[in-house]
Inverse folding.
């Protein structure tokens, strides 16, 4: 290969860098991330200097602009500092250094690079070391942040950002070294393009942990789609070239190519989905890695985000209502004591206290539903947790209860919330009229499964569809403990916060009453 060999793919490889980096710069700027926008604009400027230095007619101009690559290191430091709230004077200093290096590189003496970047100047080695140091600073910082961050979604996002920066830095160095040998080869540019592909997910993905798995799956799907599309289009072009006798760009050949691609789209989409599913099956939160599966996962993520926002509003409202209710209840309870001492009718005072207790319990459950306590995971034996819940209910209700617990399984969870969940299920069964409650415990893969059945009348058909919604209760006012309609809603919320699920399974085949199933992961919740 000659000292100034130019690969046919070198200049075309620069075009997608212009397009991708320019688009990401616009997205970053619109998203209020000027640091990331500056980084992408610096890539555009660097690619421009490569383009000019590779062409013989513009080589004198291009070789004097090659030191604009220092803006890439300064821009990436700026992007990381912006992303992490890293307040430092290093970023302005790096920009000043980039300006200085660009000015020195433009000098006619050729202190760093000469002849289109193919010949080293007298100060090339310290220049290259300085560029490597400036590029390594944000990568070391990001690696430390990944080590200290507990949130899986944030670790994943930071991992993409780190990998993007590493690929961009390493590939840029490879491009420089190849050029030093007189080869304008696109190998280094491929790595830059890959780093931009990773960066696009960082730019377009908000900091939501619920989206972490979706982004990971969409990245895999994009890779599979790009691979299959490349293979397919290569075959189409080969076929057209052979069939058109070399007249590949005639309008007839182009129209035929359009028809072939249009006709093959359903089969190509199916092949992408099957290939992605076979290679990356079993990924959390995403059942299907085709475009429909990813769209469905994104919709679910948006729904969870909206649900979280509503829960936050409900928590504020619940706290306010509970405060406003409990204060007058305390006054009413004190007045009941005064009336009792003054010789008021005992039945009237007892009814008054019953209603005060009922209102107080409603306020407590409303606060528990709207503002649940954080989970403190520890090992819990579900067999013992069921016994504790049943014992507390026997004392509170004073009703007979025949309970059998079969099996044992341990989970990692919050003991108080698990017992509260089980108490709600057993209480509903007993107050509905059940005399016998049976609990079965077993494991299913990485999950513990608890099945609770009773011999009561079962869930009324009118309540089946709204069973776990708040303020839905089948108990009458004459029940030993009138319902607030929040027990099962609180129980379902506790199960979901433990990354589990609580479901109603219809009637028990053996006992004839209601049947509920609780699934909990045996690993601790994140």
């Amino acid at each position: 290969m000659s000292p100034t060999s130019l690969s046919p793919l070198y200049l075309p490889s620069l075009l997608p860098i212009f397009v991708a980096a320019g688009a990401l710069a616009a997205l970053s700027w619109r998203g209020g991330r000027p640091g990331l926008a500056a980084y992408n604009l610096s890539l555009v400027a660097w690619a421009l200097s490569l383009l000019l230095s590779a062409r013989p007619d513009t080589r004198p101009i291009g070789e004097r602009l090659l030191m604009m690559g220092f803006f890439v290191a300064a821009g990436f430091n700026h992007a990381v500092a912006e992303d992490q709230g890293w307040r430092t004077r290093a970023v302005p200093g790096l920009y000043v250094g980039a300006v200085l290096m660009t000015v020195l590189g433009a000098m006619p003496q050729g202190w760093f690079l000469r002849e289109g970047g193919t010949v080293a100047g007298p100060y090339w080695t310290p220049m290259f070391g300085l560029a490597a140091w400036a590029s390594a600073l944000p990568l070391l910082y990001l690696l430390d942040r990944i080590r200290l961050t507990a949130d899986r979604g944030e670790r994943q996002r930071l991992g993409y950002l780190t990998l993007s920066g590493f690929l961009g830095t390493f590939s840029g160095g490879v491009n420089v070294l190849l050029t030093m040998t007189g080869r304008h080869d696109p190998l280094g540019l491929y790595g830059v393009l890959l780093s931009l592909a990773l960066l696009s997910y960082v730019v377009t993905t908000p900091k939501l942990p619920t989206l972490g798995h979706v982004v990971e799956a969409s990245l895999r799907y994009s890779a599979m789609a790009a691979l299959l599309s490349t293979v397919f289009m290569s075959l189409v072009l080969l076929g057209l070239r052979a069939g058109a006798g070399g007249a590949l760009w005639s309008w007839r050949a182009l129209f035929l190519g359009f028809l072939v691609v249009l006709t093959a789209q359903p089969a190509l989409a199916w092949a992408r989905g099957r290939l992605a599913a076979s290679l990356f099956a079993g990924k959390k939160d995403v059942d299907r890695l085709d475009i429909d599966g990813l769209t469905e996962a994104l919709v679910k993520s948006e729904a969870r985000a909206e649900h979280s926002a509503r829960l936050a509003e409900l928590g504020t409202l619940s706290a306010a209502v509970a405060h406003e209710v409990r204060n007058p209840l305390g006054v009413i309870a004190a007045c009941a004591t005064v009336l009792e001492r003054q010789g008021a009718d005992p039945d009237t005072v007892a009814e008054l206290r019953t209603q005060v207790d009922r209102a107080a319990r409603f306020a407590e459950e409303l606060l528990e539903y709207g503002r649940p306590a954080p989970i403190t995971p520890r090992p819990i034996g579900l067999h013992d947790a069921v016994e504790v819940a049943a014992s507390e209910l026997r004392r509170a209700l004073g009703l007979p209860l025949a309970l059998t617990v079969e099996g044992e399984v341990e989970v990692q969870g919050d003991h108080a919330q698990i017992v509260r969940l089980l108490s709600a299920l057993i209480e509903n069964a007993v107050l509905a009229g059940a005399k016998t409650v049976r609990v079965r415990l077993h494991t299913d893969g990485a999950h513990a499964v608890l099945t609770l059945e009773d011999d009561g009348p079962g869930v009324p058909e009118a309540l089946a569809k709204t069973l776990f919604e708040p303020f839905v209760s089948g108990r009458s006012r004459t029940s030993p403990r009138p319902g607030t309609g929040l027990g099962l809603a609180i129980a379902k919320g506790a199960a979901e916060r433990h990354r589990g699920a609580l479901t109603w399974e219809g009637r028990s085949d053996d006992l004839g009453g209601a049947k509920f199933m609780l699934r909990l992961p045996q690993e601790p919740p994140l």
